[in-house]
Design goal:
The chain is an alpha+beta fold and about 700 residues long. The protein contains 26 helices and 19 strands. About 50% of the residues lie in helices and about 10% in strands. The relative contact order is 0.08.
């Protein structure tokens, strides 16, 4: 079977295209040298392995000999996995949005041989339809443009590249640029204005979960006491959990909803969604103590540990939307299938509860017609269903649970969607953070172990001999210098892991990674962090990213990292850099603060009131463990928690957190040292005093 150069790559997405008749190159100097030598433009196609429309474009165009012949004659063709090279994707997606006003994947960019873009789009069929040009028409037009209007092309490419660079320089702060509590309030009002009162979430279809919106609103609820902030979170999380966005049989969330009801998802499942949504559900459980949020977090972790975990502990990227070439086929059900597996009586109850219709509730995307297939979704909460069916809630819950298990076992016999088994440092950092947070909220040693194994995997396999992080591991190979997100997200994970297991080495690792992040990515002149390090430049523009979209930006996560590490290590310079980061992006953020919810979580911490807590005592002692549990059970997003174990590890901790040197246990009793905005209470040895201090934050204003 014919292959192209992609056959030698590790990315599952690139390997999917290794048998195309298109003469694909991977990203690298060879392709651009060939383009210069042959005086050809570059056809750059960016996608990812779980992307449905990427598969469609491959089948329609890249597997077609006629299209491939035209592409090979006209261009040097490059394939990029956006998950492997998010820096390449970020730059050229920005160019696409600048040129066309929109973006998405598959992303199609035409470049000069020196990597400057002059044409951009997304999905293109073989032949034009419904106003969308086809490649058979588009390629000759682009060739004519390159041959006969070269000066116009080069001028346009120069302008676009200049604008991409200018967008970074425009972020340089003015002296008056500040973010404050009014910024938080503005973001809250903006989110409230776009909130869907009927179905939860924000805006109109398509709806992305955007978990940082919920974690931001939880902080606003705690700060202001406004019940509407909590209502927006709960309405959204409950609606998503009831809807088709949630896999009711195998657990885990799909990527986003194509409608406003959370019914019809794009069926791919991404690791980062599981991590960020788990954190949102865990924080909401802490805030409300409602069991449904706890259960959902546990089920997310069950899915990740069962389907996305490598044998050595790292986490895979995700699962495809398609199976057997059809989007969602693995997840859809007909009434007849359900009846055959469950029997008529249970099937009637199940179909009613999960909105299963004889004609199907899933519409074919191309024709819009019902296919007889159904997406499972709970039509209403369980207690309402039980009342409607005149059943006890426990009895109905057991019957539906048994039915789901039978359907799950039957589904396991189907052809499963392909799994992208790359292991990425940044996405693993998010899952480490989620698992570690879950381990302490849910009091689960198994989750802590999973987080610790993943951290050890990254630090063992995704570092060069000089300690510099790498971005991607697959099939025994680590490659690609780490980007800002890799550092920022991993530091987040290490800090959460420390606050779960209190192993000093995690603080040492977080401090080391923070130093590397500053060394390679910090912009001393303009402030903030570049996405690409100073030692890994193969792009024409070095950009900074701040927008919190489906994933939070590296700058947003790094801001809170700096604040937390700075507070732990009493390093005022790190806190000053966080303040400068806020200032650098203040003008951009102030135009629409709700678009930067994760960064505002960092601002919320910086504005305070924040708490520094150290608990000292004998390792493993019941009184020490009880104090720790009392602290960890509460929703305290503006805290830093250290544990000083008596003995040798106390000296090791003091080398990082010098202020713990004098924070000793009193009279062999576990002792808590609680400070709020740098004003400290007297040492606490009684549990009720600690509970009072945590429940009554105004009492922490009394200087010690």
């Amino acid at each position: 079977m014919r292959t192209n150069r992609l056959i030698h790559e590790k990315s599952p997405y690139l390997l999917q295209h290794a048998h195309n008749p298109v003469d694909w190159f991977p990203w690298g100097p060879e392709a651009f040298e060939k383009a210069r030598a042959e005086d050809k433009p570059v056809f750059l196609s960016i996608g990812y392995s779980t992307c449905h429309w990427c598969h469609v474009m491959e089948r329609e165009s890249f597997e077609d000999p006629e299209v491939a012949k035209l592409l090979n004659e006209t261009f040097v063709c490059l394939k990029v996995d956006r998950e492997e090279r998010p820096d390449v994707d970020d730059l050229y997606m920005s160019a696409c949005q600048m040129m066309s006003g929109s973006g998405g994947w598959p992303l199609t960019i035409i470049l000069t041989p020196d990597k400057r873009p002059f044409f951009a789009g997304t999905y293109f069929p073989k032949e034009g339809r419904f106003g969308r040009p086809g490649l058979l028409d588009l390629i000759p037009r682009l060739h004519e443009l390159w041959v006969n209007r070269r000066s116009d092309v080069l001028h346009s490419a120069e302008q676009i590249t200049g604008n991409l660079g200018a967008s970074v320089s425009r972020m340089a702060p003015a002296p008056s640029d500040t973010l404050d509590i009014f910024t938080l309030e503005t973001a809250y009002r903006e989110l409230s204005a776009s909130f869907d009162q009927d179905h939860g979430g924000f805006g109109v279809a398509p709806k992305f979960p955007s978990p940082h919106n919920f974690t931001f609103l939880l902080r606003q609820w705690q700060r202001s006491g406004d019940p509407h902030a909590l209502h927006m979170v709960e309405k959204s999380l409950q609606s998503m959990r009831l809807g088709g966005l949630w896999d009711h049989l195998g657990y885990g969330f799909h990527r986003y909803s194509t409608d406003e009801f959370w019914l019809v998802p794009h069926f791919e499942k991404m690791l980062y969604d599981q991590a960020l949504l788990a954190i949102a559900y865990l924080e909401t459980f802490q805030a409300t103590h409602e069991e449904t949020y706890r259960a959902t977090a546990l089920e997310i972790f069950a899915y990740v540990r069962g389907e996305l975990t490598d044998s050595e502990g790292g986490f895979y990227c995700g699962e495809d939307a398609d199976s057997e070439g059809i989007e969602g086929k693995f997840y859809l059900w007909t009434v007849a299938e359900i009846g055959k597996i469950l029997g008529p009586q249970t099937a009637n109850v199940f179909c009613h509860a999960y909105g299963v219709e004889p004609d199907g509730n899933f519409h074919d995307e191309s024709t819009g017609q019902n296919s007889g297939a159904n997406i499972l979704h709970l039509i209403k909460p369980l207690h309402e269903l039980a009342a409607e069916l005149q059943r006890t809630q426990d009895d109905l819950a057991q019957e539906l649970s048994d039915a789901r298990f039978k359907l799950f076992k039957a589904r396991q016999q189907r052809v499963r969607p392909a799994r992208d088994d790359k292991i990425l440092t940044d996405w693993n950092g998010l899952m480490i953070a989620a698992l570690a947070y879950g381990a302490r909220v849910l009091e689960s040693p198994l989750l802590a172990q999973a987080a610790s194994r993943a951290a050890d995997f990254i630090l063992k396999y995704l570092r060069r001999s000089d300690g510099r992080l790498l971005h991607r591991w697959r099939d025994g190979e680590a490659a690609i210098p780490a980007l800002l997100d890799d550092y920022a997200f991993l530091i987040w994970g290490l800090l959460e892991l420390y606050e779960t297991e209190f192993q000093v080495e995690r603080l040492e690792q977080a401090r080391e990674m923070t130093g590397q992040m500053l060394e390679h990515f910090w912009d001393e002149e303009g402030g903030g962090f570049f996405l690409v390090g100073d030692d890994a430049l193969d792009l024409p523009v070095r950009r900074k990213d701040i927008y919190d979209g489906a994933l939070p930006s590296g700058n947003s996560v790094a801001a809170l990292d700096l604040l937390r590490v700075g507070r732990i290590t009493s390093n005022a310079d790190l806190e000053a850099k966080a303040h400068r980061l806020f200032s650098t992006f203040a003008a951009t953020i102030s135009r629409y603060p709700a678009g930067y919810a994760q960064l505002l979580n960092g601002l919320d911490f910086a504005l305070g009131p924040s708490s520094d807590i150290t608990v000292a005592g004998k390792a493993g002692s019941p009184s020490l463990q009880t104090m720790i549990r009392v602290i960890q059970a509460r929703f305290l997003p503006r805290k830093v928690l250290l544990v000083r174990h008596d003995g040798a590890t106390a000296q090791r901790l003091a080398k990082i957190a010098s202020h713990t040197k004098e924070q000793v246990s009193i009279g062999d009793r576990a002792t808590a040292y609680v400070c709020r905005d740098r004003a400290c209470l007297r040492p606490i040895t009684e549990l009720h005093e600690l509970e009072f201090a945590l429940n009554e934050p105004e009492n922490l204003q009394t200087p010690g």
